[in-house]
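Thread title: Can someone regenerate the structure for this chain?

I was given the following input by a collaborator and told the matching C-alpha coordinates would be attached. They weren't. Posting the sequence so someone can regenerate them.
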Amino acid sequence: MRTYVARLAAYPVVIATLAVGLVGGVLELVGQAEAARWVVSAFAVGVAVLKVREMVADLRAGSYGIDLLAVTAIGSTVAVGEYWAALVVCLMLSSGEALEDYAAGRASRALTGLLESAPRIAHRLDGAGQLTDLMVEDVAIGDRLLVRPFEVVPVDGVLESATATLDESSLTGESLPVDRAQGDGLLSGAINGTEAIEIRATANAADSQYQRIIELVRQAQDSKAPFVRLADRVAVPFTLGALGLAVAAWLVSGDPARLAEVLVVATPCPLIIAAPVAFMGGMSRSARAGIIVKSSGMLEQLARARTAAFDKTGTLTYGQPRVTEVHAQGMGADEVLLLAAAVEQYSGHPLADAVVERAREDVGEVPSAEDVTEVPAHGMRGVVGGRVVVVGNARHIARETGQEALAGPEAATAVHVAIDGRYVGYLALADELRAETRATMASLHRAGVRTTMMLTGDGTDVARHIAARAGIDDVRAELLPQDKVDAIRTAPLRPVMMVGDGVNDAPVLAAADVGIAMGARGSSAASESADVVITVDDLSRAARAVHIGKRTMRVAWQAIGIGLALSVGLMLLAAAGRLPAIAGAWLQEAVDLATILWALLAVRPSRSERADLRLVTSELGVPSTAQAADTLPTR
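Best answer:
Regenerated them for you:
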Protein backbone atom coordinates (compact mmCIF):
# COMPACT_ATOMS: atom_id res chain seq x y z
CA MET A 1 0.00 0.00 0.00
CA ARG A 2 2.82 2.39 0.93
CA THR A 3 4.43 1.71 -2.44
CA TYR A 4 1.33 2.81 -4.34
CA VAL A 5 0.98 5.93 -2.17
CA ALA A 6 4.62 6.82 -2.81
CA ARG A 7 4.17 6.38 -6.56
CA LEU A 8 1.04 8.55 -6.55
CA ALA A 9 2.80 11.24 -4.47
CA ALA A 10 5.34 11.59 -7.26
CA TYR A 11 2.58 13.15 -9.38
CA PRO A 12 1.12 16.02 -7.26
CA VAL A 13 -0.93 17.47 -10.14
CA VAL A 14 -2.80 14.16 -10.42
CA ILE A 15 -3.61 14.30 -6.68
CA ALA A 16 -4.63 17.97 -6.90
CA THR A 17 -6.86 17.30 -9.91
CA LEU A 18 -8.66 14.46 -8.13
CA ALA A 19 -9.03 16.59 -4.98
CA VAL A 20 -10.48 19.53 -6.92
CA GLY A 21 -12.87 17.16 -8.66
CA LEU A 22 -14.02 15.84 -5.28
CA VAL A 23 -14.53 19.35 -3.87
CA GLY A 24 -16.38 20.47 -6.98
CA GLY A 25 -18.62 17.42 -6.84
CA VAL A 26 -19.51 18.06 -3.20
CA LEU A 27 -20.31 21.70 -4.00
CA GLU A 28 -22.57 20.60 -6.86
CA LEU A 29 -24.40 18.17 -4.55
CA VAL A 30 -25.11 20.85 -1.91
CA GLY A 31 -26.48 23.25 -4.50
CA GLN A 32 -23.40 25.46 -4.89
CA ALA A 33 -22.96 25.02 -8.65
CA GLU A 34 -21.56 28.53 -9.13
CA ALA A 35 -18.91 27.94 -6.47
CA ALA A 36 -18.04 24.60 -8.08
CA ARG A 37 -17.61 26.34 -11.46
CA TRP A 38 -15.24 28.92 -10.00
CA VAL A 39 -13.16 26.36 -8.07
CA VAL A 40 -12.78 23.99 -10.98
CA SER A 41 -12.24 26.74 -13.55
CA ALA A 42 -9.58 28.46 -11.45
CA PHE A 43 -7.70 25.21 -10.99
CA ALA A 44 -7.91 24.42 -14.72
CA VAL A 45 -6.54 27.84 -15.63
CA GLY A 46 -3.70 27.33 -13.14
CA VAL A 47 -2.78 24.01 -14.79
CA ALA A 48 -2.87 25.71 -18.20
CA VAL A 49 -0.47 28.40 -16.96
CA LEU A 50 1.95 25.76 -15.67
CA LYS A 51 1.77 23.98 -19.02
CA VAL A 52 2.49 27.23 -20.88
CA ARG A 53 5.63 27.69 -18.79
CA GLU A 54 6.74 24.16 -19.73
CA MET A 55 6.01 24.91 -23.39
CA VAL A 56 8.23 28.00 -23.30
CA ALA A 57 11.06 25.96 -21.77
CA ASP A 58 10.59 23.30 -24.47
CA LEU A 59 10.68 25.91 -27.22
CA ARG A 60 13.93 27.31 -25.83
CA ALA A 61 15.35 23.78 -25.85
CA GLY A 62 14.40 23.36 -29.52
CA SER A 63 11.19 21.34 -29.05
CA TYR A 64 8.08 22.64 -30.76
CA GLY A 65 4.76 23.46 -29.05
CA ILE A 66 3.29 19.97 -28.85
CA ASP A 67 1.06 20.88 -25.87
CA LEU A 68 -0.51 23.90 -27.52
CA LEU A 69 -3.74 22.06 -28.25
CA ALA A 70 -4.12 20.89 -24.67
CA VAL A 71 -3.72 24.43 -23.32
CA THR A 72 -6.14 25.77 -25.92
CA ALA A 73 -8.64 23.06 -25.02
CA ILE A 74 -8.53 24.01 -21.34
CA GLY A 75 -8.97 27.71 -22.09
CA SER A 76 -11.83 27.20 -24.55
CA THR A 77 -13.78 24.82 -22.30
CA VAL A 78 -13.48 27.19 -19.35
CA ALA A 79 -14.55 30.12 -21.54
CA VAL A 80 -17.77 28.42 -22.70
CA GLY A 81 -18.65 27.09 -19.24
CA GLU A 82 -17.64 23.43 -19.80
CA TYR A 83 -15.51 23.46 -16.66
CA TRP A 84 -15.88 19.72 -15.96
CA ALA A 85 -14.49 18.98 -19.43
CA ALA A 86 -11.58 21.30 -18.60
CA LEU A 87 -10.91 19.31 -15.43
CA VAL A 88 -10.89 16.04 -17.40
CA VAL A 89 -8.32 17.55 -19.80
CA CYS A 90 -6.18 18.48 -16.76
CA LEU A 91 -6.46 14.91 -15.51
CA MET A 92 -5.49 13.63 -18.94
CA LEU A 93 -2.38 15.83 -19.06
CA SER A 94 -1.23 14.99 -15.54
CA SER A 95 -2.02 11.29 -15.69
CA GLY A 96 -0.47 11.01 -19.16
CA GLU A 97 2.96 11.59 -17.64
CA ALA A 98 2.30 8.88 -15.05
CA LEU A 99 1.08 6.47 -17.75
CA GLU A 100 4.15 7.15 -19.87
CA ASP A 101 6.47 6.58 -16.91
CA TYR A 102 4.73 3.30 -16.12
CA ALA A 103 4.85 2.12 -19.73
CA ALA A 104 8.49 3.13 -20.16
CA GLY A 105 9.33 1.40 -16.88
CA ARG A 106 7.66 -1.79 -18.01
CA ALA A 107 9.30 -1.63 -21.43
CA SER A 108 12.76 -0.99 -19.95
CA ARG A 109 12.52 -3.66 -17.26
CA ALA A 110 15.41 -5.67 -18.73
CA LEU A 111 17.63 -2.60 -18.87
CA THR A 112 16.91 -1.43 -15.33
CA GLY A 113 17.23 -5.02 -14.13
CA LEU A 114 20.86 -5.01 -15.27
CA LEU A 115 21.54 -1.87 -13.25
CA GLU A 116 19.75 -3.08 -10.14
CA SER A 117 21.60 -6.42 -10.19
CA ALA A 118 25.05 -4.83 -10.31
CA PRO A 119 27.33 -6.49 -7.72
CA ARG A 120 28.39 -4.14 -4.90
CA ILE A 121 30.10 -6.31 -2.25
CA ALA A 122 32.84 -8.95 -2.63
CA HIS A 123 34.15 -11.46 -0.08
CA ARG A 124 37.95 -11.70 -0.16
CA LEU A 125 39.82 -14.74 1.22
CA ASP A 126 43.24 -14.16 2.70
CA GLY A 127 46.05 -16.73 2.98
CA ALA A 128 44.62 -18.08 6.24
CA GLY A 129 41.17 -18.51 4.76
CA GLN A 130 39.69 -15.54 6.64
CA LEU A 131 36.88 -13.62 4.93
CA THR A 132 36.85 -9.84 4.52
CA ASP A 133 33.98 -7.93 2.93
CA LEU A 134 34.96 -5.06 0.66
CA MET A 135 33.43 -2.90 -2.05
CA VAL A 136 33.64 -4.36 -5.53
CA GLU A 137 35.64 -1.31 -6.64
CA ASP A 138 38.40 -2.30 -4.18
CA VAL A 139 38.95 -5.81 -5.61
CA ALA A 140 42.43 -6.20 -7.11
CA ILE A 141 43.57 -8.56 -9.84
CA GLY A 142 44.75 -11.81 -8.27
CA ASP A 143 42.46 -11.59 -5.21
CA ARG A 144 40.87 -14.88 -4.14
CA LEU A 145 37.14 -14.36 -3.67
CA LEU A 146 34.30 -16.40 -2.22
CA VAL A 147 30.95 -16.25 -4.04
CA ARG A 148 28.14 -17.50 -1.84
CA PRO A 149 25.06 -19.38 -3.10
CA PHE A 150 22.81 -17.21 -5.32
CA GLU A 151 25.20 -14.27 -5.18
CA VAL A 152 26.35 -12.33 -8.24
CA VAL A 153 29.93 -12.90 -9.42
CA PRO A 154 31.48 -9.50 -8.57
CA VAL A 155 34.34 -9.31 -11.12
CA ASP A 156 35.68 -11.32 -14.02
CA GLY A 157 37.73 -14.25 -12.77
CA VAL A 158 38.87 -17.86 -13.08
CA LEU A 159 37.06 -20.64 -11.22
CA GLU A 160 39.22 -22.11 -8.44
CA SER A 161 36.61 -24.61 -7.23
CA ALA A 162 36.19 -27.97 -8.97
CA THR A 163 32.82 -27.16 -10.57
CA ALA A 164 30.13 -24.48 -10.57
CA THR A 165 26.64 -23.98 -11.96
CA LEU A 166 25.70 -20.41 -12.86
CA ASP A 167 22.83 -18.39 -14.29
CA GLU A 168 24.21 -16.19 -17.07
CA SER A 169 20.83 -15.05 -18.43
CA SER A 170 21.43 -11.37 -17.62
CA LEU A 171 24.60 -11.46 -19.72
CA THR A 172 23.81 -13.82 -22.57
CA GLY A 173 20.04 -14.26 -22.68
CA GLU A 174 20.50 -18.01 -22.17
CA SER A 175 17.69 -19.14 -19.87
CA LEU A 176 19.28 -22.48 -18.85
CA PRO A 177 22.02 -22.70 -16.18
CA VAL A 178 25.55 -23.39 -17.41
CA ASP A 179 28.15 -25.69 -15.86
CA ARG A 180 31.76 -24.57 -15.43
CA ALA A 181 34.88 -26.52 -14.44
CA GLN A 182 38.03 -25.51 -12.60
CA GLY A 183 40.12 -23.13 -14.66
CA ASP A 184 37.17 -21.83 -16.69
CA GLY A 185 36.69 -18.08 -16.98
CA LEU A 186 33.68 -16.54 -15.22
CA LEU A 187 32.03 -13.26 -16.16
CA SER A 188 30.92 -10.73 -13.58
CA GLY A 189 27.15 -10.50 -13.39
CA ALA A 190 26.57 -14.27 -13.54
CA ILE A 191 24.52 -15.59 -10.60
CA ASN A 192 26.01 -18.47 -8.61
CA GLY A 193 24.03 -21.68 -7.97
CA THR A 194 23.38 -23.52 -4.75
CA GLU A 195 27.02 -24.14 -3.73
CA ALA A 196 29.60 -21.58 -2.62
CA ILE A 197 32.54 -21.28 -5.02
CA GLU A 198 35.99 -19.68 -5.03
CA ILE A 199 37.33 -17.59 -7.90
CA ARG A 200 40.51 -15.66 -8.59
CA ALA A 201 39.99 -12.16 -9.96
CA THR A 202 41.41 -11.55 -13.43
CA ALA A 203 40.10 -7.98 -13.80
CA ASN A 204 39.11 -5.14 -11.53
CA ALA A 205 35.49 -3.96 -11.38
CA ALA A 206 35.85 -1.19 -13.95
CA ASP A 207 37.27 -3.59 -16.55
CA SER A 208 34.88 -6.48 -15.86
CA GLN A 209 32.20 -7.57 -18.29
CA TYR A 210 29.23 -6.53 -16.19
CA GLN A 211 30.48 -3.00 -15.59
CA ARG A 212 31.11 -2.56 -19.31
CA ILE A 213 27.54 -3.68 -20.03
CA ILE A 214 26.17 -1.29 -17.39
CA GLU A 215 28.00 1.63 -18.97
CA LEU A 216 26.50 0.72 -22.35
CA VAL A 217 23.05 0.52 -20.75
CA ARG A 218 23.43 3.97 -19.23
CA GLN A 219 24.23 5.36 -22.66
CA ALA A 220 21.20 3.56 -24.08
CA GLN A 221 18.80 4.92 -21.46
CA ASP A 222 19.93 8.52 -21.98
CA SER A 223 19.54 8.46 -25.77
CA LYS A 224 16.73 9.88 -27.89
CA ALA A 225 16.08 8.57 -31.39
CA PRO A 226 15.76 10.76 -34.51
CA PHE A 227 12.46 9.00 -35.06
CA VAL A 228 11.15 10.41 -31.77
CA ARG A 229 12.07 13.94 -32.84
CA LEU A 230 10.32 13.29 -36.14
CA ALA A 231 7.17 12.36 -34.20
CA ASP A 232 7.46 15.64 -32.31
CA ARG A 233 7.51 17.51 -35.62
CA VAL A 234 4.47 15.64 -36.92
CA ALA A 235 2.58 17.13 -33.98
CA VAL A 236 2.97 20.67 -35.42
CA PRO A 237 0.94 20.22 -38.64
CA PHE A 238 -1.52 18.12 -36.66
CA THR A 239 -1.96 20.99 -34.20
CA LEU A 240 -2.45 23.55 -36.97
CA GLY A 241 -4.97 21.31 -38.74
CA ALA A 242 -6.91 20.74 -35.52
CA LEU A 243 -7.04 24.48 -34.79
CA GLY A 244 -8.26 25.14 -38.31
CA LEU A 245 -11.00 22.51 -38.01
CA ALA A 246 -12.08 23.86 -34.62
CA VAL A 247 -12.34 27.44 -35.88
CA ALA A 248 -14.21 26.29 -39.00
CA ALA A 249 -16.70 24.29 -36.87
CA TRP A 250 -17.31 27.40 -34.72
CA LEU A 251 -17.82 29.69 -37.71
CA VAL A 252 -20.12 27.29 -39.57
CA SER A 253 -22.26 26.40 -36.54
CA GLY A 254 -22.13 29.80 -34.85
CA ASP A 255 -21.70 27.99 -31.54
CA PRO A 256 -18.44 28.79 -29.66
CA ALA A 257 -18.82 25.57 -27.67
CA ARG A 258 -18.07 23.69 -30.89
CA LEU A 259 -14.51 25.09 -30.76
CA ALA A 260 -13.96 23.61 -27.31
CA GLU A 261 -15.52 20.26 -28.26
CA VAL A 262 -13.10 19.82 -31.18
CA LEU A 263 -10.01 20.90 -29.28
CA VAL A 264 -10.71 18.60 -26.34
CA VAL A 265 -10.23 15.52 -28.55
CA ALA A 266 -7.33 16.98 -30.55
CA THR A 267 -4.45 16.58 -28.10
CA PRO A 268 -1.33 15.14 -29.78
CA CYS A 269 -0.48 12.84 -26.86
CA PRO A 270 -0.30 9.73 -29.10
CA LEU A 271 2.60 11.38 -30.94
CA ILE A 272 4.59 12.31 -27.86
CA ILE A 273 4.01 9.03 -26.01
CA ALA A 274 3.99 6.24 -28.61
CA ALA A 275 7.47 6.57 -30.11
CA PRO A 276 9.46 6.76 -26.83
CA VAL A 277 7.57 3.82 -25.33
CA ALA A 278 8.04 1.69 -28.47
CA PHE A 279 11.77 2.48 -28.69
CA MET A 280 12.32 1.72 -25.01
CA GLY A 281 10.50 -1.57 -25.54
CA GLY A 282 12.75 -2.44 -28.48
CA MET A 283 15.90 -1.63 -26.53
CA SER A 284 14.65 -3.68 -23.58
CA ARG A 285 13.98 -6.65 -25.84
CA SER A 286 17.43 -6.30 -27.38
CA ALA A 287 19.02 -6.36 -23.92
CA ARG A 288 17.19 -9.59 -23.08
CA ALA A 289 18.67 -11.10 -26.22
CA GLY A 290 22.22 -10.13 -25.25
CA ILE A 291 22.25 -7.13 -27.61
CA ILE A 292 23.08 -3.74 -26.07
CA VAL A 293 21.95 -0.89 -28.34
CA LYS A 294 23.80 2.26 -27.25
CA SER A 295 21.40 4.70 -28.92
CA SER A 296 17.73 4.17 -29.64
CA GLY A 297 18.34 5.92 -32.97
CA MET A 298 20.34 2.85 -33.99
CA LEU A 299 17.12 0.81 -33.93
CA GLU A 300 15.86 2.96 -36.78
CA GLN A 301 19.13 2.48 -38.69
CA LEU A 302 19.02 -1.27 -38.12
CA ALA A 303 15.46 -1.39 -39.43
CA ARG A 304 16.54 0.35 -42.64
CA ALA A 305 19.85 -1.54 -43.16
CA ARG A 306 20.41 -2.64 -46.76
CA THR A 307 24.05 -3.77 -46.61
CA ALA A 308 25.60 -5.99 -43.95
CA ALA A 309 29.41 -6.23 -43.86
CA PHE A 310 31.44 -8.67 -41.75
CA ASP A 311 35.00 -9.18 -40.65
CA LYS A 312 36.10 -12.80 -41.11
CA THR A 313 38.32 -13.95 -38.26
CA GLY A 314 36.44 -14.13 -34.98
CA THR A 315 33.19 -12.92 -36.55
CA LEU A 316 32.21 -15.27 -39.36
CA THR A 317 34.63 -17.84 -37.94
CA TYR A 318 35.47 -18.86 -34.38
CA GLY A 319 38.77 -17.01 -34.46
CA GLN A 320 40.98 -19.93 -33.46
CA PRO A 321 42.47 -22.86 -35.44
CA ARG A 322 40.77 -26.24 -35.18
CA VAL A 323 41.57 -29.65 -36.66
CA THR A 324 38.92 -30.05 -39.35
CA GLU A 325 40.20 -33.24 -41.01
CA VAL A 326 42.57 -36.14 -40.31
CA HIS A 327 43.79 -37.74 -43.53
CA ALA A 328 45.62 -41.00 -42.81
CA GLN A 329 47.12 -43.62 -45.10
CA GLY A 330 48.34 -47.02 -43.99
CA MET A 331 47.07 -46.66 -40.40
CA GLY A 332 44.04 -45.42 -38.47
CA ALA A 333 43.17 -41.72 -38.27
CA ASP A 334 42.90 -41.80 -34.46
CA GLU A 335 46.36 -43.30 -34.14
CA VAL A 336 47.89 -40.68 -36.42
CA LEU A 337 46.16 -37.92 -34.45
CA LEU A 338 47.24 -39.31 -31.07
CA LEU A 339 50.90 -39.79 -32.04
CA ALA A 340 51.07 -36.31 -33.58
CA ALA A 341 49.55 -34.78 -30.43
CA ALA A 342 52.05 -36.63 -28.22
CA VAL A 343 54.87 -34.68 -29.89
CA GLU A 344 52.96 -31.43 -30.45
CA GLN A 345 52.15 -31.04 -26.74
CA TYR A 346 55.77 -29.94 -26.23
CA SER A 347 55.59 -27.28 -28.96
CA GLY A 348 54.96 -23.57 -28.51
CA HIS A 349 53.47 -23.19 -31.99
CA PRO A 350 49.88 -21.78 -32.09
CA LEU A 351 48.63 -24.77 -34.09
CA ALA A 352 49.98 -27.32 -31.61
CA ASP A 353 47.32 -26.62 -28.99
CA ALA A 354 44.59 -27.28 -31.56
CA VAL A 355 46.10 -30.69 -32.40
CA VAL A 356 46.36 -31.69 -28.73
CA GLU A 357 42.83 -30.47 -27.98
CA ARG A 358 41.33 -32.46 -30.88
CA ALA A 359 43.22 -35.61 -29.79
CA ARG A 360 41.90 -35.34 -26.25
CA GLU A 361 38.35 -34.81 -27.50
CA ASP A 362 38.36 -37.70 -30.01
CA VAL A 363 40.73 -40.27 -28.50
CA GLY A 364 41.45 -39.51 -24.86
CA GLU A 365 44.61 -39.03 -22.83
CA VAL A 366 47.67 -38.04 -24.87
CA PRO A 367 50.80 -40.15 -24.15
CA SER A 368 54.12 -38.55 -23.33
CA ALA A 369 57.05 -38.38 -25.76
CA GLU A 370 60.82 -38.66 -25.31
CA ASP A 371 63.82 -37.06 -26.98
CA VAL A 372 61.65 -34.26 -28.37
CA THR A 373 63.42 -31.72 -30.55
CA GLU A 374 61.96 -28.73 -32.45
CA VAL A 375 63.10 -27.12 -35.64
CA PRO A 376 61.65 -23.58 -35.40
CA ALA A 377 59.10 -22.73 -38.12
CA HIS A 378 59.41 -26.25 -39.56
CA GLY A 379 58.32 -29.01 -37.20
CA MET A 380 58.90 -31.43 -34.31
CA ARG A 381 60.55 -34.82 -33.79
CA GLY A 382 60.16 -37.20 -30.86
CA VAL A 383 59.87 -40.81 -29.72
CA VAL A 384 56.46 -42.12 -28.58
CA GLY A 385 56.34 -45.68 -27.30
CA GLY A 386 59.51 -46.56 -29.17
CA ARG A 387 58.23 -45.08 -32.46
CA VAL A 388 59.89 -42.07 -34.08
CA VAL A 389 57.27 -39.42 -34.87
CA VAL A 390 57.96 -36.41 -37.09
CA VAL A 391 55.37 -33.62 -37.37
CA GLY A 392 55.68 -30.45 -39.47
CA ASN A 393 55.31 -28.83 -42.86
CA ALA A 394 55.80 -30.61 -46.16
CA ARG A 395 59.39 -29.47 -46.54
CA HIS A 396 60.34 -30.74 -43.07
CA ILE A 397 58.72 -34.13 -43.79
CA ALA A 398 60.55 -34.43 -47.13
CA ARG A 399 63.85 -33.63 -45.48
CA GLU A 400 63.29 -36.17 -42.68
CA THR A 401 61.85 -39.01 -44.77
CA GLY A 402 62.80 -38.32 -48.39
CA GLN A 403 59.12 -38.64 -49.33
CA GLU A 404 56.83 -36.03 -50.85
CA ALA A 405 53.84 -35.01 -48.71
CA LEU A 406 50.33 -34.79 -50.09
CA ALA A 407 48.78 -31.43 -50.90
CA GLY A 408 46.47 -30.30 -48.11
CA PRO A 409 42.89 -29.10 -48.65
CA GLU A 410 42.06 -25.62 -49.92
CA ALA A 411 41.77 -22.85 -47.29
CA ALA A 412 43.43 -24.95 -44.59
CA THR A 413 46.89 -25.43 -43.08
CA ALA A 414 48.27 -28.96 -43.30
CA VAL A 415 50.37 -30.44 -40.49
CA HIS A 416 52.05 -33.53 -41.98
CA VAL A 417 53.00 -36.65 -40.01
CA ALA A 418 55.62 -39.36 -40.55
CA ILE A 419 56.17 -42.42 -38.32
CA ASP A 420 59.38 -44.46 -38.35
CA GLY A 421 60.49 -42.78 -41.56
CA ARG A 422 57.20 -43.37 -43.44
CA TYR A 423 54.76 -40.64 -44.43
CA VAL A 424 51.31 -41.48 -42.95
CA GLY A 425 49.14 -38.42 -43.74
CA TYR A 426 48.26 -34.94 -42.51
CA LEU A 427 46.04 -32.99 -40.14
CA ALA A 428 44.09 -30.12 -41.74
CA LEU A 429 43.70 -27.08 -39.50
CA ALA A 430 41.51 -24.07 -40.26
CA ASP A 431 39.65 -21.25 -38.58
CA GLU A 432 36.31 -22.99 -38.72
CA LEU A 433 33.15 -21.27 -39.94
CA ARG A 434 30.66 -20.61 -37.14
CA ALA A 435 27.76 -23.02 -37.11
CA GLU A 436 25.25 -20.14 -37.23
CA THR A 437 26.91 -18.10 -40.00
CA ARG A 438 24.96 -19.34 -43.00
CA ALA A 439 21.65 -19.19 -41.12
CA THR A 440 22.50 -15.61 -40.10
CA MET A 441 23.02 -14.52 -43.72
CA ALA A 442 19.69 -16.06 -44.74
CA SER A 443 17.95 -14.35 -41.82
CA LEU A 444 19.41 -10.98 -42.80
CA HIS A 445 18.13 -11.36 -46.35
CA ARG A 446 14.67 -12.19 -45.00
CA ALA A 447 14.86 -9.00 -42.93
CA GLY A 448 15.41 -6.86 -46.04
CA VAL A 449 19.23 -6.71 -46.21
CA ARG A 450 20.06 -6.89 -49.90
CA THR A 451 23.85 -7.29 -49.89
CA THR A 452 26.22 -9.12 -47.55
CA MET A 453 29.95 -8.36 -47.69
CA MET A 454 33.11 -9.85 -46.23
CA LEU A 455 35.93 -7.41 -45.45
CA THR A 456 39.13 -9.22 -44.45
CA GLY A 457 42.88 -8.93 -44.52
CA ASP A 458 43.24 -12.64 -45.31
CA GLY A 459 44.24 -13.96 -48.71
CA THR A 460 41.76 -14.09 -51.57
CA ASP A 461 41.53 -17.90 -51.81
CA VAL A 462 40.76 -18.35 -48.11
CA ALA A 463 38.26 -15.47 -48.14
CA ARG A 464 36.38 -16.82 -51.16
CA HIS A 465 36.24 -20.30 -49.68
CA ILE A 466 34.74 -19.01 -46.41
CA ALA A 467 32.35 -16.66 -48.25
CA ALA A 468 31.04 -19.47 -50.45
CA ARG A 469 30.27 -21.63 -47.42
CA ALA A 470 28.72 -18.71 -45.54
CA GLY A 471 26.50 -17.46 -48.37
CA ILE A 472 28.24 -14.06 -48.63
CA ASP A 473 27.50 -12.03 -51.77
CA ASP A 474 30.52 -9.70 -52.01
CA VAL A 475 34.09 -10.66 -50.99
CA ARG A 476 36.84 -8.08 -50.36
CA ALA A 477 40.17 -9.68 -49.34
CA GLU A 478 43.72 -8.57 -48.48
CA LEU A 479 42.43 -5.28 -47.03
CA LEU A 480 44.14 -2.92 -44.61
CA PRO A 481 41.99 -1.15 -41.96
CA GLN A 482 41.77 1.97 -44.16
CA ASP A 483 40.67 -0.18 -47.11
CA LYS A 484 37.81 -1.53 -45.00
CA VAL A 485 36.74 2.01 -44.10
CA ASP A 486 36.78 3.00 -47.78
CA ALA A 487 34.70 -0.06 -48.69
CA ILE A 488 32.07 0.90 -46.12
CA ARG A 489 31.95 4.55 -47.17
CA THR A 490 31.54 3.69 -50.86
CA ALA A 491 28.93 0.94 -50.43
CA PRO A 492 26.03 1.86 -52.76
CA LEU A 493 23.17 0.42 -50.71
CA ARG A 494 22.72 2.24 -47.39
CA PRO A 495 22.46 2.22 -44.43
CA VAL A 496 25.44 -0.12 -43.92
CA MET A 497 25.90 -2.24 -40.80
CA MET A 498 29.35 -3.62 -40.01
CA VAL A 499 30.03 -6.54 -37.66
CA GLY A 500 33.51 -7.10 -36.23
CA ASP A 501 35.39 -8.00 -33.07
CA GLY A 502 39.06 -7.04 -33.19
CA VAL A 503 41.08 -3.92 -32.47
CA ASN A 504 41.65 -3.53 -36.21
CA ASP A 505 37.87 -3.41 -36.71
CA ALA A 506 37.41 -0.32 -34.50
CA PRO A 507 37.85 2.24 -37.35
CA VAL A 508 35.43 0.52 -39.72
CA LEU A 509 32.85 0.00 -36.94
CA ALA A 510 32.96 3.74 -36.26
CA ALA A 511 32.65 4.54 -39.98
CA ALA A 512 29.60 2.32 -40.57
CA ASP A 513 26.05 3.62 -40.23
CA VAL A 514 25.64 0.93 -37.58
CA GLY A 515 28.72 -0.67 -36.05
CA ILE A 516 28.09 -3.99 -34.29
CA ALA A 517 30.81 -5.44 -32.06
CA MET A 518 31.01 -9.09 -31.05
CA GLY A 519 31.81 -8.13 -27.48
CA ALA A 520 31.83 -11.53 -25.75
CA ARG A 521 35.43 -12.26 -26.76
CA GLY A 522 36.21 -9.19 -28.81
CA SER A 523 38.40 -6.22 -27.95
CA SER A 524 37.25 -3.30 -25.83
CA ALA A 525 38.30 -0.95 -28.64
CA ALA A 526 35.78 -2.58 -30.95
CA SER A 527 33.03 -2.39 -28.33
CA GLU A 528 33.71 1.27 -27.56
CA SER A 529 33.62 2.35 -31.21
CA ALA A 530 30.52 0.31 -32.05
CA ASP A 531 26.88 1.42 -31.83
CA VAL A 532 25.64 -2.04 -30.86
CA VAL A 533 27.45 -4.62 -28.72
CA ILE A 534 26.55 -8.32 -28.77
CA THR A 535 27.44 -9.66 -25.32
CA VAL A 536 27.21 -13.35 -26.23
CA ASP A 537 29.42 -15.27 -28.65
CA ASP A 538 26.66 -15.77 -31.22
CA LEU A 539 26.70 -14.15 -34.68
CA SER A 540 22.98 -14.76 -35.24
CA ARG A 541 22.23 -11.98 -32.73
CA ALA A 542 23.28 -9.50 -35.46
CA ALA A 543 20.34 -10.64 -37.57
CA ARG A 544 18.12 -10.64 -34.48
CA ALA A 545 19.03 -6.97 -33.90
CA VAL A 546 17.82 -6.09 -37.41
CA HIS A 547 14.54 -7.92 -36.86
CA ILE A 548 14.03 -6.16 -33.51
CA GLY A 549 14.73 -2.78 -35.15
CA LYS A 550 12.15 -3.42 -37.87
CA ARG A 551 9.59 -4.59 -35.31
CA THR A 552 10.17 -1.50 -33.15
CA MET A 553 9.75 0.92 -36.05
CA ARG A 554 6.65 -0.84 -37.30
CA VAL A 555 5.00 -0.80 -33.85
CA ALA A 556 5.93 2.87 -33.28
CA TRP A 557 4.36 3.95 -36.58
CA GLN A 558 1.31 1.78 -35.97
CA ALA A 559 0.79 3.28 -32.51
CA ILE A 560 1.08 6.80 -33.90
CA GLY A 561 -1.28 5.97 -36.77
CA ILE A 562 -3.86 4.45 -34.44
CA GLY A 563 -3.74 7.45 -32.11
CA LEU A 564 -4.04 9.99 -34.92
CA ALA A 565 -6.83 8.09 -36.68
CA LEU A 566 -8.89 7.85 -33.51
CA SER A 567 -8.27 11.51 -32.68
CA VAL A 568 -9.24 12.69 -36.17
CA GLY A 569 -12.41 10.58 -36.02
CA LEU A 570 -13.37 12.12 -32.69
CA MET A 571 -12.57 15.61 -34.00
CA LEU A 572 -14.93 15.13 -36.95
CA LEU A 573 -17.67 13.91 -34.62
CA ALA A 574 -17.15 16.93 -32.39
CA ALA A 575 -17.13 19.32 -35.37
CA ALA A 576 -20.51 17.89 -36.40
CA GLY A 577 -21.88 18.56 -32.91
CA ARG A 578 -22.21 14.88 -32.03
CA LEU A 579 -19.68 14.74 -29.18
CA PRO A 580 -20.07 16.79 -25.96
CA ALA A 581 -16.85 18.20 -24.50
CA ILE A 582 -16.97 16.11 -21.31
CA ALA A 583 -17.43 12.86 -23.27
CA GLY A 584 -14.71 13.86 -25.71
CA ALA A 585 -12.24 14.48 -22.90
CA TRP A 586 -12.77 11.00 -21.48
CA LEU A 587 -12.57 9.41 -24.94
CA GLN A 588 -9.27 11.18 -25.63
CA GLU A 589 -7.88 9.65 -22.43
CA ALA A 590 -8.91 6.24 -23.79
CA VAL A 591 -7.11 7.05 -27.07
CA ASP A 592 -3.89 7.78 -25.16
CA LEU A 593 -4.18 4.54 -23.23
CA ALA A 594 -4.77 2.54 -26.43
CA THR A 595 -1.71 4.17 -28.01
CA ILE A 596 0.52 3.25 -25.07
CA LEU A 597 -0.72 -0.33 -24.95
CA TRP A 598 -0.08 -0.75 -28.68
CA ALA A 599 3.44 0.74 -28.37
CA LEU A 600 4.23 -1.83 -25.67
CA LEU A 601 3.89 -4.55 -28.32
CA ALA A 602 7.48 -3.68 -29.28
CA VAL A 603 8.66 -5.83 -26.36
CA ARG A 604 7.27 -8.94 -28.08
CA PRO A 605 8.34 -10.57 -31.36
CA SER A 606 5.97 -10.58 -34.32
CA ARG A 607 4.75 -13.71 -36.09
CA SER A 608 7.24 -13.17 -38.91
CA GLU A 609 10.07 -12.96 -36.38
CA ARG A 610 8.98 -16.17 -34.71
CA ALA A 611 8.86 -17.84 -38.13
CA ASP A 612 12.39 -16.58 -38.87
CA LEU A 613 13.57 -17.84 -35.49
CA ARG A 614 12.16 -21.28 -36.25
CA LEU A 615 14.03 -21.31 -39.58
CA VAL A 616 17.31 -20.29 -37.93
CA THR A 617 17.03 -22.79 -35.09
CA SER A 618 16.08 -25.59 -37.48
CA GLU A 619 19.20 -24.90 -39.57
CA LEU A 620 21.29 -25.06 -36.38
CA GLY A 621 19.63 -28.28 -35.26
CA VAL A 622 18.28 -26.71 -32.04
CA PRO A 623 15.46 -28.65 -30.34
CA SER A 624 11.96 -27.30 -30.93
CA THR A 625 11.59 -26.28 -27.26
CA ALA A 626 13.94 -23.38 -27.92
CA GLN A 627 11.99 -22.09 -30.89
CA ALA A 628 9.36 -20.31 -28.82
CA ALA A 629 11.97 -18.18 -27.07
CA ASP A 630 12.88 -14.68 -28.17
CA THR A 631 16.58 -15.50 -28.01
CA LEU A 632 18.71 -18.17 -29.59
CA PRO A 633 20.59 -20.56 -27.31
CA THR A 634 24.31 -20.14 -26.96
CA ARG A 635 26.87 -22.82 -27.55
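The chain is about 50% helix and 20% strand.
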